[in-house]
Specification:
Length: 224
């Protein structure tokens, strides 16, 4: 049975540690497994704008995994079509994280793509993401101008090509996002609701929701 873990408070680092101690992800990860951390860095804006995942969350996960001998960790993401992932990594604090812990930053915009299909829809999906042994999605719980909200399911849109991102919008987003979740899925989700914009995916009106949630079921997460 699917289960959600909820942590409430204002300190993103402490909430992350609480969730990790509850779920103990290392029990599912062998020491040589590759672990991909997938934040939401849709634009090159600080998490304080309410648009991107707080890097403190990612850092606490890295420290936790390293302390338990799981060191094959990398960060993977692709910003929206109109922005540079490399710039987002820098502005959002992930470039500093990568340097501090000696881990790789993977820009999906420059990755090889693999064609996946579900329900007649064919989509170019990141080869690196598909080959990852354990994928942890770190979405930001926030509003969206088309889908009304964005969290676990929509965060995986950062693992497809820019061409597909444009096509998803032309198709109306909801259906292709649902189909994408059948093509690739995160092994675990830790959602950030500590500092977010409930009205717009690019931030600008941040609100402290003071909550984080963790679980393995993206539909349950988004429904909650």
């Amino acid at each position: 049975m699917s289960k959600l873990y909820i942590a409430r408070g204002s300190d993103a680092g402490e909430l992350t540690k609480q969730l990790l101690e509850s779920i103990k992800p290392e029990q599912y990860i062998d020491k040589n497994d590759s672990v991909g951390l997938k934040p939401n860095l849709v634009v090159s804006k600080s998490y304080k704008s309410g648009a991107t995942t707080n890097p403190v969350i990612c850092e606490e996960i890295i420290k936790y995994l390293f302390s338990r001998g799981r060191r094959n960790v990398f960060i993977i993401e692709s910003s929206w079509v109109g922005d540079s992932t490399k710039r987002a990594f820098k502005v959002c604090g992930y470039e500093d994280l990568a340097k501090k812990y000696g881990i790789e930053l993977v820009d999906v915009k420059h990755d090889e793509m693999v064609i996946k299909e579900y329900g007649g829809l064919k989509v170019e999906v990141s080869k690196r993401a598909l080959e990852t042994d354990y994928l942890i999605s770190l979405p930001l719980i926030k509003g969206h101008c088309q889908t009304k909200m964005t969290c676990a399911m929509k965060n995986l849109k950062g693992l497809i090509s820019d061409k597909e991102k444009r096509r998803f919008h032309a198709l109306g987003l909801d259906k292709p996002i649902a189909y994408l979740s059948k093509m690739i899925s995160a092994d675990y989700i830790i959602a950030d609701g500590t500092w977010t914009d409930p009205g717009f995916e690019e931030g600008g009106n941040p609100v402290a929701l003071n909550v984080m949630a963790a679980g393995s079921d993206p539909v349950l997460m988004d429904t909650y």
